[in-house]
Write a structure and sequence with these properties.
Blueprint (H helix, E strand, L loop, with lengths): L11 H10 L7 E11 L5 E11 L3 E5 L6 H8 L7 E6 L2 E2 L5 H8 L2 E5 L10 H11 L4 H14 L15 H13 L5 E5 L7 H16 L3 E5 L3 H7 L2 E6 L2 E4 L1
Helix pairs in contact: 4-6, 6-7, 7-8
The structure holds adenosine-5'-diphosphate and magnesium ion.
Protein name: Cell division ATP-binding protein FtsE
Subcellular location: Cell membrane
Subunit structure: Homodimer. Forms a membrane-associated complex with FtsX.
Length: 247
């Protein structure tokens, strides 16, 4: 597949242009965690002294048992939680220090997918996907331009006017993927995206994530699905009790 046919905007060429403009190794990192600690207000430990570096264009899995800190790690990356200590750098921004408009601007550059899809029930597939773009002030024409290739990429052109309750779990997860990527974010985070899916649907979600990665997006996926890890054959880091183990 060529880089221009699949998805508007996410493409190797696109990424290379950005890299050429950004000289220096530091700028090539997409995510950097330096001695990150997260203790929740009730005293629960989310993460303990975590160091992690993810380069632009990487695809990594974060695995570990329930309660080990996987969701906490992703929440720190998209600024839903702030670190108690240490630095969380995403796309050269210190996320823990961003507030208000600056945080919203960074979030536009991060697509997020959840295990439970989080679709708006009384809105069609098209509305669910275009809502984000509309909220960001995209023109009607630009929304149209992005919508069709995104629907095609997730294989849901024929379901564009359906409501979430008319879709299977696998289809709902593909809508949520479409919503996460329609704004062509350079970073895609997926929190146990196949947690509620059967093997076939998990495989198709993985294929879409891999395609986006081939187009240039950096992808971070949490999972404890061993089958998915074997199928994907990507870098895996492990969390245990808030501590990260690499390799
Ligand atoms: N909002 C919160 N308030 C208090 N404790 C939390 C909160 N979110 C997560 N935790 C705690 O942080 C630890 C890590 O949770 P989490 O990141 O959700 O793990 P995982 O996603 O791997 O299941 C757990 O002990 C959990 O109870
Ligand atoms: Mg979790």
């Amino acid at each position: 597949m060529t880089t221009t046919s699949g998805h508007p905007g996410i493409g190797k060429n696109h990424q290379h242009q950005a890299l050429d403009a950004d000289a220096g190794d530091e700028l090539r990192g997409m995510v950097k965690l330096r001695s990150v600690k997260k203790i929740y207000p009730n005293g629960s430990c989310g993460l303990l002294d975590v160091n992690l570096e993810v380069k632009r264009g990487d695809f990594i899995f974060v695995t570990g048992p329930s309660g080990s800190g996987k969701s906490t790690l992703l929440k720190l990356l998209y600024g839903e939680e702030r670190p108690t200590d240490g630095e969380v750098i995403v796309d050269n921004c210190n996320v823990g220090q961003l507030r208000g408009h600056k945080l919203s601007l960074l979030r536009r550059r991060i697509g997020v997918v959840f295990q439970d899809y989080k679709l708006i029930p009384r809105r069609t597939v098209t509305e669910n996907i275009s809502f984000v773009l509309w909220a960001q002030g995209f023109t009607h024409k630009e929304i149209e331009r992005r919508l069709v290739p995104t629907l095609k990429l997730v294989g849901l052109q024929h379901k564009a006017s359906c409501f979430p309750e008319e879709l299977s779990g696998g289809e709902q997860q593909r809508v949520s993927l479409a919503r996460a990527i329609v704004g062509t974010p350079p970073l895609l985070l997926a929190d146990e995206p196949t947690g509620n899916l059967d093997p076939d649907n998990s495989a198709s979600v993985l294929k879409i994530l891999q395609k986006l990665n081939n187009f240039g997006a950096t992808v971070i996926v949490t999972t404890h699905d061993e089958r998915l890890l074997r199928m994907a054959n990507k870098t895996v880091v492990q969390l245990r009790d808030g501590q990260l183990f690499q390799g």
